[in-house]
Amino acid sequence: MLKPYRIEDHTYDVVVVGAGGAGLRATLGAAAAGLKTACVTKVFPTRSHTVAAQGGIAASLGNMGEDHWQWHMYDTVKGSDWLGDQDAIEFMCREANRAVIELEHFGLPFSRTEEGRIYQRPFGGHMREFGKAPVERACAAADRTGHAMLHTLYQQCLKHRVEFFIEYFAIDLIMREDGSCGGLVAWCLDDGTLHRFRTHLVILATGGYGRTYFSCTSAHTCTGDGNGMVARAGLALQDMEFVQFHPTGIYGAGCLITEGARGEGGYLTNSEGQRFMERYAPTAKDLASRDVVSRAMTIEIREGRGVGPRKDHIHLHLEHLGADLLHERLPGITETAHVFAGVDASRQPIPVLPTVHYNMGGIPTNYYGEALRPTAGDRDAVCPGLMAVGEAACVSVHGANRLGCNSLLDLVVFGRAAGRRAAEVVEAGTPPPALAKGAGESAVALLDKVRHANGGRLTAEIRLDMQRTMQNNCAVFRTAEVLEEGCRKIDAVFASLSDLRVNDRSLVWNTDLVEALELYNLMANAVTTLHSAAARKESRGAHAREDFAQRDDQNWLKHTLAWIDGKGKVTLDYRPVHLNTLSNEVETVRPVARVY
Predict the structure, then answer these.
(1) Out of 25, 290, 295, 373, which one is annotated catalytic?
(2) Element (H, E) at 460
């Protein structure tokens, strides 16, 4: 199978796949520790989806008022609807201040207060004194925080002479006979060559899989590639049923309007001009957790109080903030509203609708970033040679629902932790174990199979079937009937991959082939998401069941594990949530009713 293709071999101490915030921070950490590090990325690093993050990065710096990491931890556990692992959450919240100050020292141009401190704004679900009132915790660079972070980290990687393989598509992992990961195979889009990487450690930082849905805020590159590779390697994905809808995607376009807009004082109204969030979240109001706001908006529309000719969306008001503040704090939002909604945000409300935004599920890891391979005897057993960070990973610090501005924090804290762990487990300059004869053949076979697919359906047709099924059958509200129908439909869509047709057989910049390979990855994510959702008979965070309206801690306080085989058959199992903390500086946050 290898003979028809030009293969180049590489050996590195560490190979990172993905150059978003998490991938670059892990790459930087490994390289700064003296490890020979490669970063393989399918887009230029500063075009990674982290560039689109707007509102800020959470840290209890207390620059705008009193704050403590224990309050941040409480909010994150509550935001997760108690599905988050509390040891990992403590780790993230304790490390937050150090991680943000480190970014500042790297050169990230944060917005400033008059005193010259890092500017912080309120954000949904972030509260002072264990839930009493909103707190300013989101450290922001206007409304382009992710853009600033990505460029800052890329510059630091260049400083440490990281070797980048840019516009290389990672096809599959290379797994050894003992079950460990020994490397990966990637395809160079520029010249059509294949590249086999042998390494001690692969760190997957491939982002989320928002493009399984028809309407989402994700870039078209967010196709869950790392998750697809892990699933094909026989490992489980975790908590895939938890998909976050952001309350404020622009109606029709899906483009994101940051939660920071509401943090600066924006608010939502229905067709009657009512600020309806006061009914659903009396304390936090428009700054309640994202799943709470999304459901409230959906209920308003369902009950006939939506705005517009079809009464099918909601208004977001920023006009009262004034043009000067919008220009200073939300310049990108003002431009986005003008381009994609045709409104002047300083004079008119912005039409918005809940839109798929973030995937809480992914590759299960511990708080070092090590990928897990749970066994019957050890539910926290690791898979040697494999790590995952960022949205591709499920640590799980976000549980059933991520709080806004905890995503950029997740990227840098666990990217940093992965780099440190790599330095602990890999001795620089030591050759990685040899690969078996023919290693990587399965990856080349997949490429060859998809490249020569000669069925009757184009990638775009099958992808649209998948996206419509996910949009209609795995949405903000779910029922057994809708989910079971979704499972049947998505299984049929998976089966239709056998009828895939790829028209372009070339190997140089073949976007037809890229999208077909991405479709295989998307499909693994879509199928496991729907089957995991159908099995979870409760409402928790972003998973809202109308037929099981209450959270059920007695039966469902556990993580879902989902395996998918080559025929699309899903096998489910479960592992316990870590309710223990890391230190005695904070107590376990016991489950209570989640109200805002």
Answers:
(1) 290
(2) helix 459-473
